[in-house]
Structures
1.
Amino acid sequence: MVNYLKLARFGFGMAAKSVGRRKFRAALTILGILIGIATIVSLISIGEGMQYGIESTLKELVGASVVIRGSEEGANVPEYVSDYVLQVPGVKDCVPVVMLLGEVGGRQSMIIGVDMDQAGDLLQISILEGQLYKAEEDYSVVISSATADRLDLHLGDSIALSGMVGGVGESFTVVGISRPISGFLAEAGCFISLRDAQSLFNKLGLASALLVTLENQDQDVYVAEVLMSAFPEANIMTEEALLSSVREIMGMVNGVLLALGSISLAVGTIGVMNTITMTVYERTREIGMIKAIGGKRRHILSIFLSESAIMGVIGGFGGLIVGIIFMYLIQSLVSTLGLPITIPVVISPQTLLIGMAISIAIATLAGFYPSWKASNIPPIEALKYE
Amino acid sequence: MSSAIELYDITKVYDLSGTAKVEALRGVDLKIEKGELVSIMGPSGCGKSTLLNIIGGLDNPTKGRVIVDGINITSMHEVKLATFRSERVGFVFQFFNLVPTLTALENVKLPMDLGEKLPLEKSKERATKLLNLVRLGERLHHMPNQLSGGQQQRVAIARALANDPSIVIADEPTGSLDSKGGAEIMQLIQHLNKTMNKTFILVTHDPNVAKMTHRVVHMLDGQVLETTQPSKGEPDVKGALEAQREILLAEMEWLKKALLLEEVRIEKEPQAYNDAVTEYAKRWKQLKRSLRDLRLEA
């Protein structure tokens, strides 16, 4: 009967001493694993973060059940269409919205033009200071607290908004400061009245989209079909369809990110295998000696497998930490570049678990072949090895 | 008193790449009693290491019968042999072969951790005792590279005794030590042999080492030439000297033949040929010097 507890303690003890007393060599191997894991973890998390960001932005901004957009990009749905839409049975409300990229306080940002009295149900904007503007108040803006912090703005201050990047801005008065919208547009995104937005972007009478809410949520597909037959040239989608198309795109993006991560992981794996193979060759005589004095195959395997597992655990753990640091770096890089998006750092337990599991599995697998080979060398041969 | 080792008509043939066969051992009969301290001498390639490997259960003979410590290990399976080695045989190597990442104490513990005899907790205590026995009690936690060659070999001897084997096998235990270190190791081995009543078998090139054993087994070309008893009076010493002389002469003969064979390489590998010739010349000089020493001793 093999005493597996004793075997495990033996293998782990030998391996721990070997790793601990050959620090430089072990550190190189661990670094190889670490880079692979850090890359894959940060890439997966960026993918997840982007997906989460886009979805929550959509959900928060577009509380509508059905969205009507023009057939092309840009603000090109005539505003008056909403009058017709309102007459479709089951429609509760229809809100025209302008949502375009402009410049807010010198930085590219999403400018959302919507009348708040209409959009109250649709947009869950939580005001931290001040209040929402009224329809008749011109040149009033609600900015996010992030923008306010950046430019050190307070209620009553003025801020320049421009419909064109680099264009000459118009001065708006800050009437409200909102909690940043979760997700993608965290820092960016400010709200002005529909009228102001139309004039800022030179789109009088037009909207980027009409957001339709329903009396009964279950009727979304039916209403969408009615609208489609009424306005065949428009682009009409239910919220569900919108989200699923986003998910589809994000799935592809994630796939690409994962492929990139896998390449770096493969390089890491080969590195680990290389180092462990070298270690095994270097220690052939030691293996021969251990076998000569009565060590069996399981003893050799337990030493080397424990060794690679230990390096896998350390490399995996380090990889997770470095990966998370990576993501924050990317996030701050995006915001210092002044891009109008924020990539939320989403660290899901699954990602951490997967990263750790991959690390241990890969290190152990990479260690298995050389260890197996080593355990099969006859002791006499191994002892003669120079 | 029963024998520690009984070898009957041991033959070992190595198959080299299908066609070439090398007969390393050709019908060796040998008995070694319990508690004996025996040395095996002979020129390189005479089969003494092969014999030692077979006694130690590292290799199976092609033909013959091997009984060690009352156990027939002639055709024992690899896995069973490992257990046999772990429990009955201690090994000492020319190059110590300590694990460089383990302290002296951990190195001595190693065979106990590999074997099934002792629980992990007891092994530390026993290893400490053994290191005290080889007078390294103050260097328990030194790494091998912090110890001299002689000290490393003493650690290796303590390791060989770890599982309380009945037989200790040493392949040129003094081969990589200077003469002083070698003498110390031999004194330790003599002492352990006497006090612990363990059977020691060592292979050596060094006549001074052989002199310190009870019995010298002289080998040549895979056969036992004769056995002599150096420590028992004048006639035996003379016999041993004569035997050593024969061995030296035999090796010189062999060198001549080998040199002729090397000539094949003159054209294709002149460098290798030159190296070989230099090597042979060096050995030749050594042999001649040994012969002269022998004559003086006689």
2.
Amino acid sequence: MTRCLNDKKLFLISEGEGDSQQRSHLKSCRSCGARHERLAVDLELLSKTLSTAVPSLYPAPLRMPMFYRSLPIAVALFLGIALVWGESRLLSPISPSSTELIFNRDLTQFLDQVSDALFSNATGKDSEVISSDPDVASVQAALGQDCSNECRELFASLDKSVPAK
Amino acid sequence: MPEPEPASFEGLYKAHRPRVQRLCRLLLKDSFEAEEVGQEVFLKVFRQFQNDSRPDDWSAWISRVTVNACHDRRKSAWWKWWRSSSGELQLAEYPSAARGPEQEAIGREEQRRIWHSFRVLSPRQQEVFVLRYMEGWSTEQVAEALAISNGSVKNHLFRAVHSMRKALGDRS
């Protein structure tokens, strides 16, 4: 007596394989015969179902996987934009911002005023002192006690040179 | 003996289009994809039709081209990446026109299980199953079309049938 056939052997017999011993067992064994018949019925059912009714199939809407799948694209897009922006920043000439411009303008004005104050007082003083009496007096008053002897003499000479009003 | 093939491309298209569409929809995951690949197949048919060396058996030739086109589509890296995590497939309505008394008897739940078990088979198992049991090819013809050995075809077939029957469960 031979042992019952396993599923693979039964399947291969249905595909036209199997030796004579297996075939004779299949004929004599009621259990194997029933399984073999069942296999034939199942095969017919499977092929008929798949061939006659093809349902519309579509991927189930899954939000999270779609989000995760879109992440690499988003990251690549972001990196691309950052790269283009960085490159444009490097290639473009350095232009100061508006606050820097305002600061520079104020600084320039301040320095101009300081230099005017310093040099106009030093150079224009003589001519103005000579030309106008109140100015000489104001300079004298401003220097006051700190004025050295030479300065006093200079003022004295100036007083003499300016005619009395 | 095979039926005489239509003499014009239009005749070929009309005769084989439903079968090509069905094959594509079996082997690919959505109907849009199937439509696209079906058009590619008929483009190849058109080119072959213009050639002097036309195949003797258009039906077999078209089946082989269709299965290979679906195989190529599934192998493409972009398609693989996009579809790999698309998750479960939902079955839309079954075409009511195709439902005969037998289909009614099978039952919707059983159909769903059969379809799902078919979908989870490996691509090669699907191809072998379709060509052997739905196109009615011999295992030798399947082996030749897919460029694999006859033993390999039988192994793929057995695994496919085994897992699909397992999904069907005990129906006694």
